[in-house]
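Run log, item B.
One chain of 824 residues. Sequence copied directly from the ordering sheet:
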Amino acid sequence: MKSTLRTVPLTTAGGAAWTVRAVDGPVPEGQGDLPTTPVAATVPGEVHTDLLTAGVIPDPFDGDNEGKLAWIGLTSWTYRTVFDWADDQQAVQDLVAEGLDTAATVTLNGTELGRTCNQHRSYRFDVTGLLIAEGNELVIEFASPVATANRLSEESGLWPHTNLHPYNAIRKMASNFGWDWGPDVATVGIWRPIRIESWTGVRIDSVRPLAGLEEDRGVLDTKVALAWSEGFSTDATITVEVGGTTNQVTVPAGSTEATVTSTVDAVDRWYPRGYGDQPLYDVTVSLAANSQSAGWQGRVGFRTITMNVAPDENGGPFVLSVNGKPVYVRGANWIPDDAFVTRLSRETYEHGIRDAIDANMNLLRVWGGGIYESDDFYDVCDELGVLVWQDFLFACAAYSEEEPLRGEVEAEARQAVTRLSRHASLALWNGNNENIWGYVEWGWRAPLAGRTWGEGYYFDLLPAIVAELDPRTPYSAGSPFSYDRYIHPNDERNGTMHIWDVWNQVDYSTYRKYKPRFVSEFGFQGPPAWSTLTSVVHDQPLDPYGEQMLVHQKAFEGNLKLERGLGEHLPKWRDIDDWHWTTQLNQARAVAYGIEHFRSLFPLNTGAIVWQLNDNWPVVSWAAVDGHGIRKPLWFALRRVYADRLLTVQPREDGPVVAAHNDTDVAWSTEVTVSRRSTAKGGEVLASETFALEVPARSAVLNSLPASVATAGELATEYVEVRAADGASAYWYFVEDTALKLDGDAYTAEVAGTENGYDVTVTATALTKDLALFPDRLEASARVDSGLITLNAGQSHTFHVTRASTPAGALGVPVLRSANDLLT
């Protein structure tokens, strides 16, 4: 008997024709015969996108459609396909579903194969003997996700959670039920590939190639899990090829696990960007039993990653090191990049990850209210050198540790660790988002009344799974966490912390009151680009508190917090154009303020992960890049403050200092000129001094601001510029902008056409603060290369605009903005 494997895809791309129809639920009038009439479906896909493609529903993101389409999540849906089958004489036929969202009953030719209730794992159903030559009917009925979550919550008892729906009762993407930045569009669908696998003998069930280092050698332990058909008694041979080496092991018939160890001499080590190169090695795994049966291919990078949280004289650090090099983390939190995740592709992932790289980031945290992303996401991070902090999927809620939830949690965790462990970019497994903090401080203990809440997952089950399946990758129980059960989980002196009193309660100047070891969440809101906002908000007149505007502002009292957050930093807006610019600018300044402070504390502080990089629809949010992929002013601020080398002026007890953080492997040696200048036309230099700046590699230094420069004659009309000979710069103001005297006519602008857009050159005649160009207000497709530029009198800057036609006239408000035009 020979061992063979045949795969027949049942996806739309593979030729399968699927339909979807409503089974029951509150389908509104005006939807025609939707409950009984099927519409064409795409697999992989989701019911919302199928209905949208069929023209049955309007765009869920537009206007107030989100609420009007809530019936979809309250409805049960049936997917159906019919396919033929050519008998291939194999011993076993399996239906393999890589992702079903979520509570599904799977039936083939009238026989129920099983029921599922976990979006985050795959399923394999034995269909041997059930297939016929013609007209096989595969039906997958999805129960209403909202009704299912409510039912499960009622059956098990209420566990505390945030937001509207009890997402913690069901293993489904939490943010799919709505979040404070995302829409409530509870989906169903066959969201990952589905296929028939027909096989005889032995097949590869999974491969875990764990790459590590022993001195200058790369060591690859390839863990192969096997499945055998009944009665097959032939031994199998597993062959692993990597880095020019070939190794084999013989596996006795019936054995379900095997390890092949390969050694690659003089291996090239994988590093995150900014710390070295990202060499990747192809790995080929072959399985033979009498004849070639199946194989697996992937890539690995050889590296070691460690997490240091050992107590020190200041409390407890949080340091990630790659190949022994401590990494200063400059990162962002990553949410699912589209509320309808089946629209994501390798291209969209690469675009989002390049947003991070172009902003000088080296880590993305995959947040626990989303999904375990597709392999495309992690492959791109491997290639481009972006570390991945991977949350297990628990967020802002208590979770039952009893069955049936516990069994689902273990199954999904095992599958996730098995699938993702090969990736060189994977830097950390994290047990949950804010749940330990929630138990301590959010009033959960009384309603829980002694019941489990997830502690056993975070401190026992999940670390045991990681230790078993991916021992090369560190594990953290949660974020925030102090790495001691007897210390408050959000203590700034220990481990990781989240800073959310800023934005929710206090002014962003509060950032400087903290001395955090590591900040894994913090942020500030601002609206998306004008073209993004107005593509979905159609209030007349447009107003921050308009009906549709508030549909696209999910944070509790979000617009009130935007207004309060201006504090003394910026004046309240005069019109909707000013609202848009003022709140975007304030968002950028707030986050930059925090990061500059954190970096000035190095080496006490070892990194920051801003909330958040991306959006999943057009919305007012904490994102740096909006739902249409437009980089907000915050993104340009992040690019500056996350630069490899940063200059910033910070207050200290004895007066302002110039803090210089050099996050490179090369010493930073340059000359710095510090000038006190007038804000008025001409920009008179009132005092100036020069000093030599010497910062060793991966170090920071503080230099006192010279007394002649640090003291202003008139606070409202003077400022300080710090400029290094190599181009790095920083500014210091003696008063907030609301008290600063800025010239309202401080610059001129000229427009010149280019091959694929146009250039706008701005020349300052007086201090021009935070120049920003918004070409999307002229054409939604337009993109600009720079933003938040501050110019002294006599300086110029050119904005390069692409994907746009040249405007006919001069550019001014609201296309070209600065802080000056808010204050005059």
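Observations after the first pass:
- The mean pLDDT is 96.
- The radius of gyration is 29 Å.
Flagged for discussion on Thursday.
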